[in-house]
Amino acid sequence: MKSNSGYRRREFLWTAGVAGVMGLLEGKGAEGEPARASSLPTRGRLMAQLESIAAEHVTIPKEEGQFLNLLVKLTRARKVLEVGTAHGYTTLWLAEALEATGGQLTTIEIVPERHELAKKHVAEAGFSHRVRFLLGDAHGLIPKIEGRHDVVYLDADKGGNGDYFEKLLSGKLPAGGLLIAHNAILLADAMQAYLERVLAHAEFETVIVRAVPEDGMALSYRRRAGRS
Ligand SMILES: C[S@@+](CC[C@H](N)C(=O)[O-])C[C@H]1O[C@@H](n2cnc3c(N)ncnc32)[C@H](O)[C@@H]1O
Question: What is the mean pLDDT of residues 59-88?
């Protein structure tokens, strides 16, 4: 009986897929059971609340949040850096993925009120243990951050992406790492210098991917030495 129920549980985990991810963020556990953290029942309401004030904080659409969540899981990222926390909507999608990989997120925001609001939202969702919040100008903070990141997500001042790229190149984004820049279609003009630089860079393979019809993200994979 024990192995049989163990099998059923594993089978469910394999087949739950995206519905399972959404269930977690909506506060449901497997097969309707309560999920792990005590604050999970608040997550569904919290995500809906953050989505209702998305325009105010210029946050990403839900589909892009789901896409980022999946990317972190697929790459099995353990260290993720987000530039542009806002009120923490994307942060929650990234943190939930890192719950699956056992990783950590560092997120940077320049506006103190947004930084505080994001901390509150992440605490309410039960993910504080996954997120380190930095307050300040990311241009100055990135060189001071220790260690390398498997995934870096840029969603702050679009004209600053070129500077972020140069600062990440030296020791912050390893070979095999993934750099993601938001608004690569909608705000392509503001990001032109960055897009030209990364598309032409010999160490990076870049594609523009749409998770929603109106916009896209530039995904740039840093090649491993000696491999194509
Ligand atoms: C488009 S919003 C980010 C939205 C967020 N990714 C989400 O969907 O939940 C951009 C954020 O970047 C912040 N920002 C802009 N310039 C910055 C800088 N130089 N350093 C850190 N944060 C910055 C803004 O204050 C704003 O909150």
Answer: 95
